[in-house]
Amino acid sequence: MKRFGLVLCLALLVPAGASAKKKKAPEVQPPTVTTYGSSLDSLVRRAPGSYGRAASSDVDGDPNVGPGETVVLANIAGPAVIDRLWIAVEGGETWWRDLVLTITWDGAASPSVSAPLGDFFGIGPGARQNLQSMPIAVQSQGRSMTSFWKMAFAQSARIAIVNEGASATRQLRWEVQYRTLDAMPPDGLYFHAQYTQANPPEEGKPLTVLRASGKGQFVGMTMSSQNEEPGAWGTGSVHFEVDGATDRGPGASTLLNYFGNIFGVNKTHGPYQGCTLDEGDRVKARSSVYRFHVEDPVPFDSSIEVKVDHGVDNMRKDRLAAVTYWYQDAPQVPFEKMAAARERRWTPPTDEELALWARADELNDSVLDAYRCDDYDTALTLLEELIELEPDSVYASYNLACLYALKGEQDKALHMLETAIELGFEELAFARHDPDLTSLREHERFRKLVGLTESK
After folding, report:
1. How many CA atoms lie within 13 A of 362 on its CB side?
2. pLDDT digits (tens, 9 = 90+) for 292-345
3. Beta-bridge partner residues of 163
4. Cis upstream peptide for 79 (omega within 30°)
5. CA dihedral over 379, 381, 384, 385, signed as positive or negative
């Protein structure tokens, strides 16, 4: 951080014989106040514009939205910038996907923001999750949602909620805080957010989650999945093509790595990336992750396209849904029609399934504790119990292979490794170097399983 130090005035040394005429000392200017990118630092300067607000408290009666109805939260004349959008909802268990948020800029024919509420606010199908990040906050177990994305516009903004479900909301509240401006900044960009899903994705092809033309910058993505088969859903990659080239953006990176994870996801909240829902790698298990490019936006001059893999070879059949966020120089309509509400609803795991998974997770934690203490016998007993409870568990099968290998039971180890791969274990590069599998290293069957030799 810069520091404003004392200005030291040094005496002017005049050589012998030189003119003794005084020179005027340079005028000392007071240091100017600057900002360093912090929101708190910016408060020392007056924000431009005048404060405005549109809220449900200004509406007569008790606002709610029934099946097939639309409620307009705000009609704002521009130029202006929206600083905060807060929406609170209570309803049935599908409203996160049934209610669609739309924002239309400058009277355009279609909205530039169009996404189910739960997905726009980073909690996907709901499951009563919270989220705390820099641009988005969700509280009250998924029912109180706040966006801090800055949204500037020149002429008008229309913010609405559309109920595409079969049930009315039981409670609906909102506030929109904005500032009216003299003019939209000359280089100002319009905020966009669009929802895409695939149930399932097309076999052999990645899912395109964003295709935009114009000049702007990509600022993030939220993503949800529901496993249709055992194993990790995020083993593919995310691919960026900027201005028609793959080397002008982030290129391709492993999907889990892109969201800040490795070896699966873990529930965590960060200012720019995190995971709000993690039910594991079982069939019907759901995950929700987010990544916001607040500090590292991806600029584009003419176009951007973002694609997401479903498995290494795009062969997994998991349900996928994503919202991409970006800014660009003019409002753009959605690049494809949103899936119908009935297709957006994902049947959640039952209470019995969730209880079984919770018990399995407890066993797995105990396995890891025993393993770290080199108590392989206890770890093996617990893992065998875990496999009986969840025979399709990918990582339990892999861990059991490791323990059998450590105990010198090679045939059992190879069988469980083969089972793990059949169930969807794809981290073969890790398995090739895993010290727990050292005793299998020279075994021909092991080498075929992990791709060191070709299978015949």
Report:
1. 7
2. 999 999 999 999 999 999 988 899 999 999 999 999 999 987 778 899 999 999
3. 99
4. yes
5. negative
Classify each residue of 270-280 as buried b or exposed e, where b means 16 or more C-beta atoms within 10 Å of its C-beta: eebbbbbbbbb
Specify the pLDDT at position 38: 65
3-class secondary structure per residue, the chain: CCCCCCCCCCCCCCCCCCCCCCCCCCCCCCCCCCCCCCHHHHCCCCCCCEEEEEEHHHCCCCCCCCCCCEEEEEEEECCEEEEEEEEEEECCCCHHHHEEEEEEECCCCCCCEEEEHHHHCCCCCCCCCCEECCCEEEECCCCEEEECCCEEECCEEEEEEEECCCCCCCEEEEEEEEEECCCCCCCCCEEEEEEEEECCCCCCCCEEEEEEECCEEEEEEEEEEECCCCCCCCCCEEEEEECCECCCCCCEEEHHHHCCCCCCCCCECCCCEEEEEECCCCCCCEEEEEEECCCCCEEECCEEEEEECCCCCCCCCCEEEEEEEEEECCCCCCCCCCCCHHHHCCCCCCHHHHHHHHHHHHHHHHHHHHHHCCCHHHHHHHHHHHHHHCCCCHHHHHHHHHHHHHCCCHHHHHHHHHHHHHHCCCCHHHHHHCHHHHHHCCCHHHHHHCCCCCCC
Structure tokens at 160: 């609405």
Higher per-residue pLDDT: 14 or 77: 77
Domains and CATH numbers, the chain: 46-181 (2.60.120.1390), 188-335 (2.60.120.1390), 351-449 (1.25.40.10)
* Inter-axis angle of helices 351-372 and 394-406, nearest 10: 20
Q: What is the pLDDT of residues 221-277, one digit of tens each?
A: 999 999 998 888 888 899 999 999 888 878 778 888 899 887 777 788 899 999 999
CB 238 within 8 Å of CB 256:
no
Tell me the average pLDDT of the chain: 87
Q: How far apart are CA 273 and CA 268, in angstroms?
A: 9
Is 19 buried (19+), middle (13-18) or exposed (0-12) by CB count in 10 A?
exposed
Q: Is the pLDDT of residue 24 over 80?
A: no
Q: Would you mind telling me the total number of residues written for the chain in this entry?
A: 456
Q: How far is CA 144 from CA 121, 161, 260, 275, 355, in A?
A: 10, 15, 26, 18, 27
Please name which of 287, 119, 305, 303 lies closest in space to residue 208, comparing C-alpha atoms.
Answer: 305
Interatomic CA distance for residues 85 and 136, integer angstroms: 10
C-beta neighbour count of 72 within 10 angstroms? 12
